[in-house]
Amino acid sequence: MIKHVATTGNAKKVAQLQAVMAELLSEALRRGFFGTAAVELSVQDGTIQNIRRKVERIEK
To answer: Most buried pick, 5, 23, 26, 48, via CB within 10 A?
Structure first.
C-alpha cells in the first residue's frame, strides 16, 4: 500500500493526478496514437508542488 503525507494540498493534488492520468491514458490508448506520454511530479518535502503532462505524437 502506498503511504503519503496526508495534507490538504496533497489530497487535492492526488485527486488532480488521478484525473490527469485517466485523461492521458484515454488519449494515449486510443487507436491511431503513436508516440510517448508521461506525467512528471515536482515534490518538495513530501508535498506535491506541480504536475506536468507530456504528450509527444509521431506523425505517420
So the answer is: 48
